[in-house]
Design a protein that fits this description.
Order of helices and strands: HEEEEHHH
Radius of gyration: 18 Å
Shape: extended
Structural class: alpha+beta
Strand content: 25-35%
Number of strands: 4
Strand order of the largest sheet: 1-2-3-4
């Protein structure tokens, strides 16, 4: 990765989106060097920010849309290392999601067994 180009892109994103400067949960400024680049490809960039004040974190995906630059931020308890690890995992299939949904809605299922 081109570090100078990454630095320029990061500054551009910080200037365009308030969420990259201020924690949406405690509303304090992040300060310097809290935004970590986890992944970059032709379509999108993945960043991780951990607030030094409240310790909450955001996973931020930035990419180009037909309307310009777009950003999606998710509040997470994942560390930067975990976020990067799970980013490369295979997506959960629709069938698996329906199976989980059915399991959750099964009134006879005892969730205490699930956590033992």
């Amino acid at each position: 990765m081109d570090k100078k180009n990454d630095s320029n892109n990061l500054e551009s994103i910080k200037n365009q989106f308030k969420i990259t400067k201020e924690c949406p949960l405690c509303t304090k400024n992040y300060g310097q060097d809290v935004m970590k680049l986890l992944h970059r490809d032709e379509e999108a960039v993945l960043y991780h920010i951990r607030c030094p004040h409240c310790q909450n974190a955001l996973a931020i995906i930035v990419g180009l849309t037909s309307f310009g630059m777009g950003l999606v931020a998710l509040v997470t308890d994942l560390t930067a290392e975990d976020a990067k690890k799970y980013f490369y995992k295979e997506a959960i299939s629709e069938d698996k999601m329906l199976e989980i949904y059915s399991l959750i809605n099964n009134q006879n299922y005892n969730f205490n067994q699930f956590f033992k």
